[in-house]
Amino acid sequence: MKTVEIICRNCGADTLLQREAIYDGFTKSGERLLCSACGFEYESEDAVPFKKKKADPVIFTEADRSAAVDVFDEAESRNLCRYCANYLINPFTQFCSIHKKEVQATDTCPQFKTATPKDESDCPI
Ligand SMILES: [Zn+2]
After folding, report:
1. Distance, CA 69 to ligand 1 centroid (Å)?
2. How many domains is the chain built from?
3. CATH code of 84's domain
4. Are 115 and 84 in contact (CB under 8 A)?
5. Is the dihedral of CA 90, 95, 96, 99 positive or negative?
């Protein structure tokens, strides 16, 4: 779409260009270019003080996108505290019963012991 915003040379307003068709009988013979604020008429398109548009914001290019996140490697996830028999979790903390300290589910540990299904049967059902 064509820019119609102008800074009027006559009244200084930050306004819009008004285009008025000029008819010669039924034939459109031209256009009048007017300031919609004060009505000042510009003699031609070249004389219209079109408002310069700000440069478009830089849009992320394909290259800026981060590569797809790698899926966890099986071997790497095997020693995670969350799968360890000594990993205790409650609504307030995650705790390692070997090291007696708070841990994260994603921590790993050399003393990892795979939790057995029995350990997960705290559920009353
Ligand atoms: Zn004006």
Report:
1. 56
2. 2
3. 2.20.70
4. yes
5. negative
**With a threshold of 0.70, does the pTM exceed it?**
no
Q: Which domain holds residue 42?
A: 5-47
Please choose, from the candidates 105, 83, 109, the residue with its C-alpha nearest in 3D space to the C-alpha of residue 95: 105
Provide mean pLDDT across the span 39-66.
78
Residue 52 lies in a domain: no
Please give the structure tokens belonging to residue 115: 């939790």
Residue 84 has which token pair?
């360890």
Backbone angles phi, psi at 83, to 5 degrees: -100, 5
Q: Is residue 23 part of a domain?
A: yes
Which residues does 119 contact at the CB level (< 8 Å), separation at least 6? Answer: 85
pLDDT value, residue 116: 75
pLDDT at 57 > cutoff 80: no
Confidence check: pLDDT of 24 > 70:
yes
Distance from Cα 27 to the centre of ligand 1, integer Å: 28
Alpha-carbon distance of 57 to 71, in angstroms, equals 33
Residue 35 covered by a domain: yes
Alpha carbon of 12 to ligand 1 centroid (Å): 6
